[in-house]
Design a protein that fits this description.
This is Pyruvate/ketoisovalerate oxidoreductase catalytic domain-containing protein. This protein has eight helices and six strands; from the N terminus they run βαβββαβααβαααα. It is an alpha/beta fold.
């Protein structure tokens, strides 16, 4: 199975950790993987976009409408990446905004993300909002929202890496004292759409 995955967020949200876990998991399953990252101006708070292709591809980059999955850790970053989404794209978006300084200082307004996502629904296969930051915070580790999102990603049928492989890679990626909490929040994301 082949998959074109776009991951979007801002610096400091753990996109590189997601890339590492997906990449190492793909290698474990002997799947070819190509990846490319684009970082914004700021180390923390700037846009970060990662392109990943799992399967037999020549380049990790994507054209307009090519993404099978768009995984966004921040709502506005999902909007910025919508040009890569097409009628077959499934979008998973963390519902918690990270407001940049111009917004928090009152100089600018945060966009009406709900309006844009509602308009985008007719142009993509599905859009699913996940309260990843809230779920991770309830477990005492809001910084692990990226792992909640990784769990939700693993649930999608079009994502070609097994949940068990991802969990094994999580065990190998984090220091021992953080393994259990990361597996727990991964499973919260994985099971999120099962709950009524």
């Amino acid at each position: 199975m082949k998959c074109k995955l776009l991951i979007a967020g801002v610096g400091g949200q753990g996109i590189l950790t997601i890339n590492q876990i997906i990449g190492e998991s793909a290698v474990k399953e002997e799947k070819q993987i190509l990846a490319s990252e684009v970082h914004g101006m700021a180390q923390r708070g700037g846009s970060v976009v990662s392109f990943m292709k799992i399967g037999n591809y020549r380049s990790p980059l994507m054209g307009h409408g090519e993404a099978d999955i768009l995984l966004s850790l921040e709502p506005v970053e999902a909007l910025r990446s919508l040009d890569k989404a097409g009628s077959n794209t499934d979008i998973l978006v963390n519902s918690k905004p990270i407001k940049p300084w111009p917004v928090t200082s009152g100089k600018e307004e945060y966009p009406d993300v709900e309006k844009f996502l509602e308009e985008a629904k007719s142009k993509v296969n599905s859009i699913k909002k996940i309260p990843a930051s809230e779920l991770a915070r309830k477990e005492g580790m809001e910084r692990a929202a990226n792992i909640v999102m990784l769990g939700a990603l693993s649930k999608l049928d079009k994502f070609p890496i097994e949940e068990t492989t991802m969990i094994q890679t999580i065990k190998e990626t984090f220091p021992e004292r953080f393994v259990d909490i990361n597996i727990k929040v991964f499973e919260l994301g994985y099971k999120f759409f099962d709950s009524p």
